[in-house]
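Much of the work behind modern protein science is quiet bookkeeping, done one molecule at a time. The protein below has been through that process, and both of its lines are reproduced in full.
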Amino acid sequence: MWAGNWVAGRGLQGVEPPLGINFWRWFVAVAVLAPFGIPALRRNWAQIRPHMRSLILLGVLGGTLFHSMAYLGLQRTTAINATLINTTIPIFTMLLAWIVLSERVNPLQVFGVFLSILGVVVIVSRGALSSLMAMSFNPGDLIVLAATPVWAIYIILVRRAPKELNLARIDTLFVISLAALVAQLPAYLLESAYFKPVSFAWSSLGVFAYMGVFASVLAYGLWNAGISAVGANQASFTIPMMPVFATILAILLLGEEPQLYHLAAALLIFGGVYLSAIHGHLFKAR
């Protein structure tokens, strides 16, 4: 579902503005969740109210900030590049767990981080030494790279959420989605007034529906439920599966062509993630 979201976001490049894409994605999600989420929120208000700030923060970080940066990056880079860069999220999760939660990191994990970073350098330089020497990188890749720590923070926050707060439940998903929508509104209005308004083409409406239902409501619910079941770190290691699906979809739907440097970067990133995972705490549930 999330691989399809990256491909869909790239497919709307040049058709719809990035912040508008994110706004209408969450508008659809809120509209779908509201008939069920509002009654559930009323029933469980006493339980949810103490955690409203945490839920709003999850919506702003995971819904507004991360995806706005992702759609901005997809204006200038391919879906294959973006999802490969996205696979560094487990590395950022490990580093944040070390900084925030004081979890130990051993030398082999540090070497894994180095390999993954090297893989990202291969992507943003397109495998060309001349790009490195001239420091000439694709801005879209750099924006997507800057977004990945934001999602790592989201993972850490979900991990630290109280056990009694079920983030896969319909009422909590509704609050997170509503927070993402409201936080996106000012930027969307500015973009519409001064840059480019959403066209609302029929093809775009279909993509917004996919993003809202599958990439937002269902994917977020499944992701949060997965973190609750196996822990944040272990769940994050399913992220490297995303480029596999995204590459297939990008080839079939967008005509993108994988290059040799994609393979080299994937091997470096996946190798780094693997080394970081097999030694230490990263496959332990919370």
In short: The chain has one domain: 2-278. Residues 2-278 form one domain.
